[in-house]
UniProtKB/TrEMBL annotation:
Primary enzyme class: transferase
Top-rank lineage group of the source organism: Bacteria
Name this polypeptide is given: Acetyl-CoA acetyltransferase AtoB
Pfam families in the cross-refs: TLP1_add_C
InterPro entries documented for this protein: Thiolase-like, TLP1_add_C
Gene designation: atoB2
Keywords tagged on the record: Acyltransferase, Transferase
Gene3D superfamilies noted in UniProt: 2.40.50.840, 3.40.47.10
Thiolase-like protein type 1 additional C-terminal domain span: 420-488
Amino acid sequence: MHMNTHVVMAGWGQVTQPKETENPLDPPGLMIQAAERAGQTLTDPSVLSRLDGIMVVRPLSAHCPDAPIQVARALGVKPGFLHISNIGGNSPQTLINQAADLIAENRLERVLVVGAEAYVKRHPDTPKPESALLQGIPETYANDDAIGATPVETLHGIQHPMQGFPLFETALWQASGLPLSAYLEKIGTMWSQFSRTAAGHPYAWVRTSRTSHEIITPSLDNRPVAFPYTKFMNAFITVDQAAAVILMSEKAARACSKKNLQPVYFLGGGYARDRQRFMVEKSDFTVSVPLKTAVDKALERAGLTLDQMDCFDFYSCFPCAVSIAKKMTGVSDNDPRPLTLTGGLGFFGGPGNNYNLHAVATLAEQIATGRYRTGLVTALGWFMYKHAAGIYSSRRPEKSLAGTAAADHEKPLAGFNPVPVDEAPTGKGIIETYTIVYRPDHTPAYGVIYGRTRQGLRFVARTADDPDLFAALSGKNMVGRTVRLTHDTITKITTAYL
């Protein structure tokens, strides 16, 4: 029986395929290119032909169930372990946690984790890239991960992230006690800092630094999407990007790592899923118990505290995701440590499931070159449902990671039991959060309210189509206000009136 081994991030690589590319690569092609770049960080790139594991982040821009085989074939390797993830932005870090577990147990020695998306439509006469979320889910996708909302939520207009995450933000706004202008300035300032980071990142899709005013103010280039978010507050998903990392046993990494680089150890990871699976089931839209659980697991396994982190990359699909991560980890507003290493999904790019792998590759590069010693990365899937965390450092670990990912897989649930739902409410209700979804011409299309009935049950309702109501909801925080509910037994739609 071999002793458990430590895990090293031995190689990393990133690719951004510009929009003007004449013969663009598809996701597997981009994965291969990223893997080759990861190999170039080693003294011997031929290590790629000796991989014994390949783990692929499932693309959303194209259905590629055989991507691990395509990558292996292109690299000239026949690894004994091939795997492709489910849907979710947590997937890269979750795969790294799993790969580290296998290496720590001496079941594998060299593992490639790779992912890519190719969403860019380059010519008017070419079809749009496939999208597993927007154009139908292939049967081979795991059903649980393919669904982001319940039927009652979808019926009322909450289905995709751009519609759902604003509900968290409205609740956070209410909890802040600030007027809307001050609250938007606060999150706009944070997002402006993210844009500046992206402007200096060589693989960022958008390398334009934006002011808080530009980000929070609707304009021709920055339309309102779903209150309180404009386009610049949303993840930028239509990108072509790829990233790859190579994890190895400490012994294997020492044999092929460049001497002028610091070693990058994977100290610990964590994973947790929310018992409150869907938005409609959440008891508090300003917290995430599973996020805290995942981070706490990673810290405990690393034997470190949050104060020992030099930097963070909090998953940043929308500002609320970062705000909740700060709240759950105890990072204050005046903490000088960076919250992003890339610029986040809105500026660096939000390549489907795979953004988090870019954060990890960026952190690995910065640790290897001495900019930081230790950093924490988080990732999430769906509406704050699945959470993964990882800690990377130049300091050698003191603990083994053997069995940690397996333990998380066996007992993944965290948080509170789901809130019971009334799908046909009538009478009085209390607003808990809400959003207004806008048309491309900047006019309100519909509003959606989540709240509680007098019996304490959750309801989801459309607002009445009333310009005065839209103005009221977008001017002053209406959380806590009483509404009157009616339910149409034919359409199954509930309508809320102030």
